[in-house]
Design goal:
It contains nine helices and eleven strands. The chain is α/β, with parallel strands linked by helices. It has a single domain, classed as 2-enoyl-CoA Hydratase, Chain A, domain 1 (Alpha-Beta Complex). Strand 3 and strand 4 form a beta hairpin. It binds ligand LCMDX3IU.
């Protein structure tokens, strides 16, 4: 993939000059990448209005972005969104409802690859959660090594609430962040935590009042690795996450088959249809 590089002031950091890298190969422009001149850290912003739903194209863009930043020896990545109220609304349920099975398989394989890329990234990562972050949004945030969240939003894995069993790839990074008992209860309850509660249980690391403050906190975290050898850092991270990554790599085909079998069941299709309708009608009441 090719990038067009321009210099510009960024809305994130006021007048600090940054390199704006815009993906040219993506016709949808669903990701924006900015590299800070001073720190060398990249900010990856999901940009799929209105609520950054993870469809096949956005998922593929996230995977490609990570691979390219690794190749470019990026020193740190901050994942955020261009929205003022949503980090990511999670999987685009339209991908799951009445699916073309071939595309559904491609979709889930892409999600597995995105998870492998972000959870296993060689580059240090921080999530700047500047809005709601349910389900797939929470998966992305927990793939990162550090989370800073703005107040009065929600985050968590709510699949059980609408009758879905979160697949292993959805659970693992959540389990990596939380004590097992809290993770189990929260998943069984399909619980979404407020920013404050997420801080109290350790699902996020810090709160920030504004996006700018959150950005500075993410930068501060990434700078803690400044004096650490990047290879040693990355191999140490792999030692912690390697088993989870290997389990998915080895079980990818089974995970895919289980997912497709589960999602295409009549009962699950009915639940997905009802949930879509509920989301669509939410504001009319
Ligand atoms: C052993 C084998 C196991 C196999 C397991 C198999 C299956 C499990 C599968 C899946 C796992 C899934 C993980 C997921 O990520 S599922 C997605 C979960 N996401 C949600 O529940 C979020 C729902 N959305 C919201 O709560 C709000 O939209 C949000 C807080 C994000 C934003 O609110 P806001 O008021 O700003 O915006 P809205 O007006 O509500 O939404 C705008 C627009 O988007 C539509 N929409 C919202 N979310 C989704 C979605 N996830 N999918 C599809 N469409 C969505 C919403 O309906 C609006 O559209 P319209 O009505 O204006 O047309």
């Amino acid at each position: 993939m090719f990038f067009q590089i321009t210099k510009a002031a960024t809305p994130l950091t006021g007048c600090r000059r940054q390199l704006i890298l815009r993906s040219l190969s993506s016709s949808t422009n669903n990701i924006q990448i900015e590299v800070d001149n001073k720190t060398g850290f990249a900010t990856v912003s999901m940009n799929r209005p209105p609520v950054n739903l993870l469809n096949l194209e956005l998922i593929n863009s996230l995977t490609r972005s990570m691979k390219e930043m690794e190749q470019n020896k990026s020193r740190g990545i901050i994942l955020t969104s261009t929205s003022n109220s949503v980090f990511s609304g999670g999987l685009d349920i339209k991908e799951l409802y009445r699916p073309d099975v071939q595309r559904l398989r491609e979709f889930w394989t892409a999600f597995q690859d995105m998870w492998l890329a972000w959870y296993g990234s060689a580059v240090p990562t921080a999530a700047l959660i500047n809005g709601h972050s349910p389900a797939g949004g929470c998966v992305l945030a927990t793939c990162c090594e550090y989370r800073v969240m703005l107040p009065k939003f929600t985050i968590g894995l709510n699949e059980a609430k609408f009758g879905l069993v979160p697949p292993p790839v959805v659970r693992i990074s959540f389990k990596n962040v939380l004590p097992l008992r809290i993770a189990e209860l929260a998943l069984c309850q399909g619980k979404l935590f407020t920013s404050n509660d997420a801080l109290n249980i350790g699902l996020i690391d810090e709160l920030a009042k504004t996006k700018e403050e959150g950005y500075e906190k993410c930068v501060k975290f990434l700078q803690t690795f400044r004096k650490v050898d990047p290879v040693a850092r990355s191999l140490t991270k792999q030692q912690f996450r390697g088993k989870d990554l290997d389990d998915l790599r080895k079980g990818k085909q089974k995970d895919l088959n289980d997912f497709v079998e589960h999602v295409t069941q009549d009962d699950i299709q009915m639940r997905l249809g009802l949930y879509l309708e509920q989301l669509h009608n939410r504001k009319k009441k």
